[in-house]
Model the fold of this input.
Amino acid sequence: MLPMGRDDRDAGADQLRSLIAQSCQLLARRGLVEGILGHVSARVPGTDQILIRARGPAERGLVHTEPADIRLMTMDGALSTTDREAGWRVPNEYPIHTAVYQARPEVTAVVHAHPRAALLCGLAGLTPRPVIGAYNIPALHLARAGIPVYPRPVLITRPQLAAEMLAAMGSSDVCILRGHGVTVAGPGVPEATLRALDLEMLCQLTLGLARLGASPPEVPPADLAELPDLGGQFNVQMTWNALTGE
Ligand SMILES: [Zn+2]
Done:
């Protein structure tokens, strides 16, 4: 493979900016983030830099995110001097993102949001169980893997707190932050975003079942065997195109 040139990197970064902006808009439309709270980031391939949804002087909320709102940040949470002087600021909770990237080389995108059903599940001590099947197969697998909970409702503004969250999250791609929100990781912005939507659907389902007093059995092995992995083209690319084109 030819080494990546500067033009290739710039084009790749522009594509990531667009994906992150689409992710912020989608999460806002689906109610996973409100107002100016919540952020999405991506690792720039081949570098130790992160593209992250920053806040500028013309901040209008996540639903109005544009590619220009996505700025380059170092692993220490620093923006360029030019960006700082122009009034850009990284989110206070940027350590959520940098901690995951530094500990998990396979992760290239991180979503942090404050969705309502995950909040209620965390506070109520309810954990999504693998009770659905063909309704949403990726969500079934998410529930089967188990959903860890970080128990402290703190603002994660320091590396020490982010390390605690990471310890709770372990090798999972999702973590409920009790009394706070969720952290979701993935091998790309679409994957992490769709996983965040699936997690919130599972939490809504869990709340609904709890209100009904229902406790359905988990999907049995014979039925699991009839639920194939439909692949990334179906589960990620087609779904992402459908949801971002709404
Ligand atoms: Zn937060």
In short: The chain has a mean pLDDT of 94. Residues 190 and 241 are 9 Å apart (CA to CA). The beta strands are 39-43, 50-53, 70-73, 109-113, 149-150, 174-177, 181-186. Residues 93, 112, 114, 180-181 surround zinc ion (CB under 6 Å).
